[in-house]
Amino acid sequence: MSSATAMAALLGAVFSGLAVALFLRRRWLRVAAEASALRDELARERSSRAESQAAQNARQQALFENMLEGVLLLDASGRVQFTNAACRRFFDLETDVRGHTLLEAFRCNELSAVATEASKAGRVNGRELELDGGSEARLLQVNAVALMGPEGRPDGILMVLHDATRLRQLESTRREFVANVSHELRTPLSLIKGSVETLLDGAASQPAIASKFLDIIDRHCDRLTFLIEDLLTLSRLESGQLAINYDTVPLRGHVSGVLEDFHRKADERGVRLLNEVPEGLQARADSDRLDQVLSNLVDNAIKYGRPGGAVRIEGRELPEGDLIEMSVVDDGPGIPTEAAERVFERFYRVDTARSREQGGTGLGLSIVKHIIQAHGGEVRLETAPGKGSAFRFTLPAVPLSPTGK
Ligand code: ADP
After folding, report:
1. What is the per-residue pLDDT across 203-238, written as a single tens digit (0 to 9) for each?
2. CA distance 208 to 10
3. Which of 183, 234, 328, 349 to mutate to test the pocket of ligand 1 (most atoms within 8 A of CB)?
4. Model confidence pTM above 0.85
């Protein structure tokens, strides 16, 4: 082989070697780029999975924290693993109790007993716990379930705590209400029955005695009618069935109309009725319901006020907001402080015998309160023993138009 040929062969080998090397390098670079893109892709996927896991955890956390029920999770060794906000609130917990035993954390033997029972029996349903420590007395209903891990090994206890305090209060209010209604119905009914029996036993033939018993029957029939009317009104007000038909009510004229109905009763007790509401005061109110409010308050002021005294109806515009304050004021014996807080409760009376004797149902002020609240107003009592009583309530004001209407 000539040296030129050998040179050409060598150059050929070198070039083809270089070409192969270049090809391999390009190929390697492409593989490396693909591998890096794959790595990036994997990293992106991992981080988006972590983000969605974090978002899911945050959602779960928000869900637990905002639940009305308390949630408490114990681990397999009986230590607190998780508590939500409601659970911490029920027990007035201010520190982090995770890792503590149930008794250390909650200092409640009954709760520990529920956990022990759940771990033995698998679950405990509707166990009631009375908590009287902390800020207020509470009744909790506790459900607990033992959790099982893989291979059926005990893996902790989950407790859900339901605050049944309000339910219990409602139940006792309902029971008290039924007892009161039964009592209020039974008393006039037994007087009516007794009078009828006396008449049947012969009193009917003696006109003077008969009229006395007929009078008792008449009064107690009225009392039953008032009671049933008041109960129906109260029930409609409480269930929101009684619609409030708003109108513009000129108050001075309205009060005059109400007082007309009470002149005879006031005269019998020598009570003066004074309409001190200024002209031009107008409220946005249901005229019939306002009638009911004023009638109840004026009736009470005459009944329980001072014989020979005075009952004033006052009205004024309040400086704050667009409100009018109306007051029914008497100069009677007033109401003791401890009773003043309760007179708006159904069937509460300061002097039960006196109220019954006057034909009272014990529901008047409760009706007043509901009607005023339905108007968005408030009612309050200012009183002191021996200093009379002032029942004051607010209503939305209607400003006079420039034409004075
Ligand atoms: P009642 O039908 O017994 O009058 P209310 O609900 O209207 O029922 O009033 C509740 C109680 O508040 C009355 O029984 C009475 O003891 C007391 N009370 C109401 N108004 C007055 C008042 N102006 N002065 C003194 N006591 C009053």
Report:
1. 999 999 999 999 999 999 999 999 999 999 999 998
2. 154
3. 349
4. no
